[in-house]
Amino acid sequence: MVKKTGIVLVLLLSIASFSQTKKARIVEDFNKNWNFKLGDYPQAINANFNIADWRTLNLPHDWSIEGAFDKDSKTKQAQGFLPAGKGWYRKVFTIPANWKNKAISIEFDGVFKNSEVFINGHSLGIRPNGYISFGYELSQYLYFGKPNVIAVKVDNDAQPNSRWYTGSGIYRNVRLVVSEKLHVAKWGTYVTTPEVSAQKASVNCEVTIDNENASAKEFKLVTSIVNANNVEVANSTSIEKFEPKTSAKKVHNLTVNQPKLWDTENPYMYKVLTRIYENSKLIDNYETPLGFRFFSFDAEKGFSLNGKPTKILGVCLHHDNGALGAVENIHAVKRKLKILKEMGANAIRMAHNPHSLEMMQLCDEMGFIVQDEAFDVWKKKKVTNDYHKDWDAWHKQDLEDFIKRDRNHPSVMMWSIGNEIREQFDSTGIAITRELAQIVKSLDKTRPVTSALTENVIEKNFIYQSGALDLLGFNYKHEDYKDFPVRFKGQKILASESVSALETRGHYDQPSDVIKTWPPKYGAPFDGNADWTVSAYDQVKSYWGATHEDNWKTIKKQDFMAGTFIWTGFDYIGEPDPYPYPARSSYFGIIDLAGFPKDVYYMYQSEWTTKPVLHIFPHWNWTAGQEVDVWAYYNNADEVELFLNGKSLGKKSKQNDDLHISWRVKFEPGTIKAISRKGGKVVLEKEIKTAGEASKIALVANKKTLKNDSYDLVYVTVSITDKDGNLVPNANNLIDFEVIGGGKLVGVDNGYQAGWDSFKANSCKVFNGKCIAIIQSNGKKENIQLKASTGIDILAKAIEIKVE
Ligand code: GAL
Question: Which residues fall in a coiled-coil region (predicted)?
Answer without folding.
Answer: none
